[in-house]
Automatic annotation (TrEMBL):
It is a multi-pass membrane protein. Belongs to the binding-protein-dependent transport system permease family. The keyword Transmembrane helix applies. The keyword Transport applies. The chain crosses the membrane at residues 12-34, 80-97, 109-128, 140-160, 181-203, 263-280. Keywords: Cell membrane, Membrane, Transmembrane, Transmembrane helix, Transport. Its main location: membrane. Residues 73-280 form the ABC transmembrane type-1 domain. It comes from Cohnella soli. This is Carbohydrate ABC transporter permease. It is found in: Cell membrane.
Length: 295
């Protein structure tokens, strides 16, 4: 008995130590990026691993002072919020409809959606299609093409099919129609899987920039990711200009290095997503497991 207790204690100790080390390995890269983004470039070149050296927020002040970055942040935020809300609603409603036997050709339509997971026409046909639809230099480019996502439809459809039919039948007996059943029964019951696809889609929307690169020339419609990429390309010239100002004015202003800019960009674009996950985590695991029980 005592031996078994010692084995249990040893196992739990090793298990805790292993997962603590694993968590540290996951967290440290973000911490490393943060402390290097607020450190002096010269000290940073020597190597900074635990604490920031020569603490400075110059790179953040310089980046956030750019009007284009504030505008792009608003575009990316609007894209992430509106795109996610509309995509979740569209996928949920579409998934509910294709579970109804009364819907004509529902199996054929569902197969067409699944096929999109495996077949892609390529970049040029996609570009020509978006341009023909009038989505070039149009904010709707960020919303309309992703309203229906095959992977989300599969998860949502599978989840809805596991909801007891008695719930819907009781509502129909009381005179509820399809819209009422969907809005007051199906959607509220499906919140775990809704939260799951919300996280997936919010991350995708926030990180997307290829459509912006090929189809948007208007700076007022550029997303944060593309704007920061352009800022990064200009960082070397910015560093040289800052150095010239230092030599000319004999000030103690710090040089902004491209490496500082890279670290700051990573911090800025990662922070919003890191803030979303803690609020969605309790639904996330439950939703993805329940939505993948059967296909």
């Amino acid at each position: 008995m005592r031996r078994e207790r010692l084995l249990d204690i040893s196992f739990h100790t090793l298990n805790t130590a292993f997962f603590a080390l694993f968590a540290l390995c996951c967290i440290y890269p973000f911490y490393y990026i943060l402390i290097n983004s607020v450190s002096d470039p010269i000290q940073m070149a020597k190597g900074i691993y635990l604490w920031p050296k020569g603490f400075s927020t110059t790179v953040y002040r310089e980046m956030l002072s750019q009007r284009t970055i504030s505008v792009s942040f608003g575009i990316s935020s609007s894209r992430a919020v509106l795109g996610t809300v509309l995509t979740v609603f569209s996928c949920a409603l579409f998934s509910y409809l294709i579970t109804k036997k009364e819907m004509p050709f529902r199996k054929t339509i569902y197969r067409f959606v699944v096929v999109t997971l495996y077949l892609n026409a390529g970049l040029i046909p996609w570009y020509l299609t978006m341009k023909a639809l009038g989505l070039k230099n149009n904010f709707l480019l960020y919303i309309l093409p992703s309203l229906i996502v095959g992977f989300f439809v599969i998860l949502m459809k599978t989840f809805i099919e596991q909801i007891p039919a008695a719930l819907e039948e009781a509502a129909v007996v009381e005179g509820a129609g399809y819209w009422t059943v969907f809005a007051k029964i199906i959607f509220p019951v499906s919140l775990p899987i809704v939260a799951t696809i919300t996280v997936f889609n919010a991350v995708n929307q926030w990180n997307s920039w290829m459509d912006n690169l090929f189809l948007v020339n208007d700076p007022s419609l550029q997303t944060l990711q593309l704007t920061l990429l352009n800022f990064l390309k200009q960082s070397e010239a910015l560093a040289q200009e800052t150095t010239r100002q230092m030599l000319g004015n004999q000030t103690t202003q710090q040089v902004i290095s491209p490496q500082n800019v890279k670290m700051a960009i990573t911090t800025i674009v990662t922070a919003p997503i890191l803030l979303i996950y803690p609020f969605m985590q309790r639904y996330f695991v439950k939703g993805i497991m329940l939505g993948a029980v059967k296909g």
